[in-house]
Fold each of these.
Amino acid sequence: MKNITELKKLGQNFTLLYVEDDVEISKIMFNYFLAIFKNVFCAQNSEDALEIYENNNCDLIITDIILPKMNGLEFSKHIKTINSDQNIIIMSAHSDSDKFSESIKIDVVGYLLKPVNYDELNACLYKASLKIKKLEDDKKHKKNLKSAVKEKTKQTQKLELEKNENFEHTLYSLVELIESRDTYTGLHSVRVAKYSVLIAKEMGYDDNSCEELYRAGILHDLGKIVIPDSLLLKPSKFTPLEHELMEEHVNLGYKMLNKIPIFKRIAKIINCHHERLDGSGYPNALKGDKIPLEAQILSVCDTFDAMTTDRIYKPKRNVTEAILEINKLSSIHFNDKVVAVASRIFKNIDIDENVALLSPSHFDKLRLAYFYNDSLTGLYNDVYLSYCLAKNKY
């Protein structure tokens, strides 16, 4: 046989199970097969052969048809129920067509007649070995492909995570920039986020939902990045037109976040955090259950922090006063269940007195001068009185 050398090379990677009840034939063939294959197991009946098969990884089975207890065809059928890809060669002294046809149905690799023609045997072994190698190569390829896909997926997920983290860090930096513009509301978003999570946990939200709400709290005023300083830093009450302009920060924040897939749900929460149950809120005058519950939690926390933090034109209220005011608006502006939980939570909140600036910083002095000093004379203008009155609670 031309390919005998290659057959031996292939066979040194495989294990053979040989089933033959004739002891003399079994000894002769065992020695022959041992010169080709890495491992060779012999059995003289199907039961012993099954036990060997179940305890060892057999790449190829060669079996006689006439065997005690269970014939070779029945044995082969049984093996195929265990492993449909198992390579089997039938050896038989019988040449009748029924057994040959049955062997074909079992999907054997070859059917050899006794006495054995070694050229035919080698050709059949070579064919079987190539088939086994191809099957193993396919398995390795699938395994490598699966590993490659897994690694690629892992890398893609890592890149996506890094991209999302970069997005988030960029947005958080923008929020810090917004709040650094107004020292009176510094860390407002952080406080709103923390208050919201405390309420959400009390209401039974899971960790993922709380994390989502925390992000919404941090980013809820993101739209203010495009509000001009002349409006954002104005140390007095807004005119109706200025109110309308300021209210646009909700839509602007929503549009910025809604373009980023991971922030789409957060964007919806943020877009609704100034809506009110009775429809008096903005930007869409939503009512009742049309406002996401997370946004209703956010709105209560946003209002509470605004009331308990000094504004340059309006002094803060204490915690008790703020809770009373929020309760007055329960079922009108705010969800009654959220208010009930929030009231319990807020009672235990320690307001950092450093949030309220007791004396104006250099920046605030410059801001007062910009808004209240006449550009020609340097004297206070006519709106300064309203600021003083509001500041001193007159």
Amino acid sequence: MNNTILQLKIKQRLNKIASHDYDNIECWQIVESFNKGQSDWCRRNLHGMNTKQEGDEQSKRRIDDLQILLTEVTIPLSKHDKYVESPTLPTNYFEWKRLSAEATTECCDNTRNMVIYLAEVGNVDELLRDKNKQPSFEWGETFCILQGNRIRVYTNNEFTLEEASLTYYRQPRRIEIAGCVDPYTQNTSVVDVECEFKDDLTEVFIDEAAKILAGDLESLNQQQIAGTQVETNN
């Protein structure tokens, strides 16, 4: 969907087409509300905070809607005592999905694919002590944590990991409207950047943007109608 249609649809939802009163909508407000709306929608639906209580990959629709955000990158791992650590997470990191890596040991020539699960920082000492849950090259299992915007994978000095493959949900691409000052960078956008999602989901984001703008303008009727549309078409 191009940005001209997107702007018309948002103004239509707010009954602001050709409006010249003090509530006239500026293009930068449309950009900000749409980008906030798609980010809010993604957070809710990854977590399952919607009317159907469907979170990440819990239905075909959630898989289909959110798969465009899945990104896979290879990250190096630096060695420390009992663990290895990644560099800072990518700047477009949005939410965790999975981590995989191959381990080696001095006593074995073959590499082993490790199952790495995300654990809580508060449980690290217990997990390292528990014989059934501590890092194990023999069983091909270990755990990792997120701390300081980095990934820490525990090895207990039993095996070596040099790099890992991180799969995560990235931030949705922000739209830009040509000739409009981008509220995020304060620069005038020279080209249109359109919504990357399919058109039916873009329609939902339009209702999200209308709901946000209606709340800013204290237009309670439009806010309630747009909010209902968002959840009905979720």
